[in-house]
Design a protein that fits this description.
Blueprint lengths: L8 H10 L4 H6 L1 H4 L6 H16 L5 H5 L8 H6 L3 H10 L5 E4 L6 H9 L2 E5 L3 H13 L5 E4 L3 H10 L4 E6 L21 H11 E8 L5 H7 L3 E9 L2 E10 L7 E7 L6 E6 L16 E5 L1 H6 L2 H8 L2 E2 L7 E3 L8 E10 L3 H8 L6 E5 L5 H8 L7 E7 L5 E8 L1
Parallel strand pairs: 1-2, 1-4, 2-3, 4-5, 6-8, 14-15
Antiparallel strand pairs: 5-7, 6-7, 8-9, 10-12, 10-13, 11-12, 13-16, 15-16
Helix pairs in contact: 1-4, 7-8, 10-11
């Protein structure tokens, strides 16, 4: 598909007019819209931008509102950082004069880095990505950005040769290998950052890798050198990115950060930990007055002992990953519930405890049955004010915790 790099007036009018239309129907009627001044390329660009605004508003609200911002194709949209995580990344480092994005793509990260830097360099091997980003940057009046159409490997080699240095270098290797299959290992991603580590640390005061939230933290720690910080970033309790921050200066300790961004308020909840404490330090207990479920970033981090110690809580079971305490802990990062009753896993006991209510929200943690099986057995609809946790207690017995959200 060929597309225009610049959003022209005729394009903005078309996008605004058809922004809420059935896109499939619009595409079927393509010939109706093509004219001497509105070419196939214009139409394809308009469709791409309508698709972006219909499907990715939650990810790029600021840029979706700007009718002149030119989005790329579907793959670029999927791979791009959200504007929330891009802002988060730019704020990890308090200040820097020069920044470099070696895998530019749509450029959302570059825009955030450029907003803080004196000068920023955007790099991508794809000519269309580079031209589109250049036009977007000019439209946004970001005059401190230079654009390089080069692979990360070539650009990096030139920076090393010229003795250049950046306050922060950012790289987001594609999770697709050269055969366009999903890559699960760093060595199979594009570019292969394991081969570039020496050069990256030569040009960067701070080096930041963006990895999939599914990537194993311990594996990343074992393969990447000079790690200073590890950040797990969620948006609205959905894990989005694993960030590994490295330094050209040798580090004696590593900081682990679990963050959750509320997209409505843009408030960032953050918990920091030094090193993972041994699980021997975890206290266990039967359910108390309150039940706590950690957010997705804390769950991904998996520092169970640290979470217990930080908030002074007890776990229900080594594998249940639910906490309990007699007191309400307001600053806990996650969902909080007041316990109503603990009952056995049978329909009669649960319905009696619910006192005639026939629906509840159900979560299974370390339980032999799935949510669907539990819901079918208890014959409960979904929703309502009650939250049921089907779990295993420290006694080893399965149990149903009937709670209400605080």
């Amino acid at each position: 598909m060929r597309m225009e790099n610049v959003i022209k007036p005729s394009l903005t009018e078309f996008i605004a007019e058809h922004i809420k239309d059935d896109l499939h129907r619009t595409i079927l009627n393509k010939r109706k819209y093509i004219s001497g001044t509105f070419s196939d390329e214009c139409f394809d660009t308009a469709v791409s931008n309508i698709y972006a605004r219909q499907n990715y508003w939650h990810k790029f609200p600021t840029y979706c509102q700007n009718i002149n911002f030119n989005f790329g194709g579907k793959l670029v949209l999927e791979q791009a950082s959200s504007e929330y995580t891009a802002t988060y990344k730019a704020n990890i480092i308090p200040q820097f004069a020069r920044s470099l994005d070696l895998t530019g793509g749509l450029g959302i990260d570059s825009i955030s880095f450029a907003a803080k830097a004196e000068s920023h360099t955007y790099c991508d091997v794809d000519a269309y990505c580079c031209e589109r980003f250049r036009e977007n940057a000019e439209m946004l009046q970001l005059n401190n950005i230079s654009v390089l159409q080069e692979s990360a490997e070539v650009a990096l080699a030139n920076f090393v040769h010229n003795g250049e240095r950046f306050g922060i270098v950012y790289i987001d290797p594609s999770r697709r290998n050269t055969q366009q299959r999903r890559a699960l290992l760093l060595k199979d991603m594009q570019p292969n950052v394991l081969l570039l580590q020496d050069a990256l640390l030569q040009v960067a005061d701070t080096l930041m890798y963006k990895l999939s939230p599914l990537f194993d933290i311990r594996r990343a720690m074992g393969e990447l050198r000079s790690v200073r910080e590890v950040h797990i970033v969620s948006i609205n309790n959905e894990c989005k990115e694993l960030l590994v921050v490295c330094s050209s200066v040798r580090n004696t300790s590593i900081k682990y950060v679990a963050s959750n961004i509320n997209s409505a308020t843009e408030v960032v909840e953050t918990s920091e930990f030094p090193e993972n404490a041994p699980d021997d330090d975890i206290a266990y207990s039967m359910p108390k007055n309150y039940i706590y479920e950690a957010n997705s970033s804390l769950m991904k981090l998996g520092f169970w002992a640290d979470i217990s110690q930080k908030y002074g809580m007890s776990k229900l079971h080594p594998n249940s990953h639910l906490w309990t305490d007699d007191n309400y802990i307001d600053d806990f990062q996650g969902r909080k519930f007041v316990l109503q009753e603990v009952v056995k896993y049978n329909k009669k006991a649960v319905l009696a405890a619910l006192a005639g209510v026939n629906k509840a929200n159900i979560t299974c943690r370390n339980f032999p049955h799935s949510v669907d099986v539990v819901r079918k057995k208890l014959q409960l609809g979904d929703g309502g004010d009650y939250y049921i946790f089907a779990t295993t207690l420290i006694s080893g017995q399965p149990a149903i915790l009937i709670t209400k959200k605080v």
